[in-house]
Amino acid sequence: MTSPEQHVVPFASPAAASGAPYVEQAVAYDGILLAGFGGPEGQDDVIPFLRNVTRGRGIPDERLEEVAHHYRHFGGVSPINAQNRALKAALEAELAARSIDLPVYWGNRNWAPYLDEAVADAAAAGDTRLLGLATSAYSSFSSCRQYREDFARVLTDTGLENTVTIDKVRQFFDHPGFVQPFVDGVRDAVRGFLADAIAPEAVRVLFSTHSIPTADAERSGPREGDEHHRDLGEGGAYAAQHLAVAEVVMAAVAAEVQGADRVAWDLVYQSRSGPPSQPWLEPDVNDVIAELPGAGVQAVAIVPLGFMSDHMEVLWDLDTEAMDAAGEAGIRAVRTPTPGVDPVFVSGLVDLVQERLSGTPAAQRPHATHLGPWFDVCRPACCENVRAGFKPAAAGVAP
Fold first, then answer.
1. What is 363-398 written as a DSSP string?
2. What is the pTM of this model?
């Protein structure tokens, strides 16, 4: 068990430095750090961007080119930067509407504008108490800890580790503001199928998220030995969080659409990129679609549950490959929207900021599933990637 005196949270505000899972005292932050993945904005950017993404893995350019064609299909432009610009503007507008005077600094992990620049700009403006908002809702190495490691790296590389602190809002997979846009999308898709006289039993909902190595999935969430560890089953917190949200979405749709309680659903995975010898989470969305006609399915709603916005994995893997798979299977398919800049979602993100500004007690925080609300301060070794080796991470108890 981790004892309180063992708690060490590097790079944190004094309120978070104790290592308590929830920060229940008000913190006067100076700014918000919107942390994105980044993406190329032209054909010449594609390979350099992919080198950044795969940094340290020794992948030759000819193999990167196999992935590059996804971007080249869209002119070498990922939509993710434009979407984060829109999200930044929407956040700024919502903050202003609530009279919350906090600037939003935007930086990416893998492409300009980089996190290093955003943090340096904040420090130069005198904004040294930052609250991180990563553009990913779930717990895993790539969707949480890697952002936290980059926060720590940036503070060290810029020499600001004793000047700037970075906390992070909780993982928001089950915040109502994130969940409601998915409810709306699934409701509209199912209602449309049923209105066209497709029987509920002939409709399937596929909740899709990014596949990750099974070893990473098993390490997502608090580790065994920590007082906050829970046995969440195969796939760890990452799979459990998606399953819990999917259950909530389907229950909400069943309450609104007659017959929707007879619509079956599955959690599926996409965008696998590892070697065949390495186990990743399954089943693959395209494999499942190919099997649907044999189960009497005539229509499928493909729900990008693991994604905040329509970036490349959505445009290529779902809008292109999965829709092609549905066409080959001879079934009707609809891809439902991501939250994007839905006002309900943007308002929910600002709610998360307000929680930390006000020190809202955990018991009063909204959450749509039995798993939440998730932690403000990540637990020791949470979501660590043991293949890549230990790296310091902000916004969590060391290691």
1. GGS--SSTT-S--SSBPTTTT--TTT-----SSB--
2. 0.96
